[in-house]
């Protein structure tokens, strides 16, 4: 176990040492989303308000439980930026212990345990989840606990032919996975269907009720606060289901071709798609042997359906995290099946199968290897990108405009590092914009009216995200451009004076601030 913990901690330490060296000692996360969680948690701890602005309700977080955990920690230890990292590091180590206990239960040998744990660390990849400071490490832990424990429960009940009660721990796991990420609803829906199939009717209803209840409560609170039932981050990032005419046809095409076949969105989608082949392939390869292992069959069923739903209705990628729980659980179940049952294939007697299995293994795992390699390769640079752009934006506002009203399209670091009022032009923390986007009314004229209504002093935006008609309403003052961008929405962020009278002061402040910008940031004035 010590070796696997070292294999987890050493890459994390090496990445963070590189980052701190390149950011002048500043601890930084590779995602702006982490700072959104921290900002809401900070305001919840300090003011009792759920939003990126004090005393305002803004449903900008897709993880209810993780934000509450951060808020509790901030209340006890103060709003320290290291806390999400520490939570994830502890969770990652606990996850390895939990998986190792499962491997011991499966009578897997010590050497095989080590190999499986190393595969999990690399393929998930756990070090990248830890440095990201998001809820996905916890999601991996509790998704694993629920799926495998639930499958054991069903196998035990069927084998003993008794209508036993669902363990209380599974109700707790179900509640946790749903309040950590809305994708947890996929897992609970499958579990409830399995329970109904085996005629555990009452248990299915109770499990569904307990798991969904916190989301329903939060949804009603959101509606009472004049927000949507679902968080803005879920609504604006998820793939909408179009039910009318050609729109529905286009949606079906998008799911079947773009998401489940071509994977145009990148290596993360392709790697996730491979699970839809890998899991059934392992099932077919060991079909005869798996008849005695209903729990393994159920785990494969869970992961196959969840992968399909993830690809069709949710997201993959954005720094290798959305699909991480599926990959981790898949690596565990596939590894257990291979280690325990590979002798049944009698490969020595069927040597013709060896090249076929070798070729299939390469085809199935190569995208997963590329995905993890890309994650480790980009980790340090992603942190540097956030430091050179998002962190500098927040620092600039804090130094010169700490009490002003600013419009932005990336709200995380900007809102966490200063006290200015932030108008979110992308809609995560602004219901006016969110509703307009959902209703296809977020025209340049409308967005400009929002800016005017809130008496915004200046805007910091990605030009590529907005119609040029909107940007022509304002006076462009400067651009900042970072090098080797791997994570920010755009390499170039632009500063606009919304009130024409403020352009000279804004330019003066930007020129003065340039002295402390990192050397790799290019500046252009207008």
Write up what this structure looks like.
The chain has 526 residues and is mostly helical. It has two domains: 2-152 and 250-377, no CATH class; 381-525, no CATH class. 65% of the residues lie in helices and 6% in strands. It is built from 22 helices and six strands. It has helices at 2-22, 32-47, 64-77, 83-105, 110-123, 126-132, 136-160, 168-180, 184-197, 201-224, 232-237, 245-262, 267-285, 287-290, 294-313, 324-341, 353-400, 412-416, 431-438, 444-453, 468-471, 503-513, and strands spanning 405-408, 421-424, 458-461, 475-481, 492-497, 522-525. It has a six-stranded mixed sheet, with helices on one face. α18 links the parallel β1 and β2. The chain is globular, with a radius of gyration of 25 Å. It starts with a helix and ends with a strand.
